[in-house]
Amino acid sequence: MNGSKLMDFSVSEYFNHLKGAGLGSLPGMSAEILDAEERNLISTGHIPVDNWLGVIRTAHGLGIPTTPTML
């Protein structure tokens, strides 16, 4: 989400630009805790669960696979 904010794009617009430049997947999303209460305790500073899910759903909707390892 930081990149989309810096470029003043929606997440979808940002991913479309990246995909057009050759992005094939979004790797490196390890240990994402999706229980909001636990995430707030363990993953301080990470984006809220609903935002994270929105980003992932946007990526999948554009045909960009992701690789989270812990949900």
TrEMBL record:
Keywords noted in UniProt: 4Fe-4S, Iron, Iron-sulfur, Metal-binding
Listed transmembrane segments: none
GO molecular function: 4 iron, 4 sulfur cluster binding; 7,8-didemethyl-8-hydroxy-5-deazariboflavin synthase activity
Native organism: Porphyridium purpureum
Official protein name in the record: FO synthase subunit 2
Cofactor: [4Fe-4S] cluster
InterPro entries listed in its UniProt record: F420 (IPR034405)
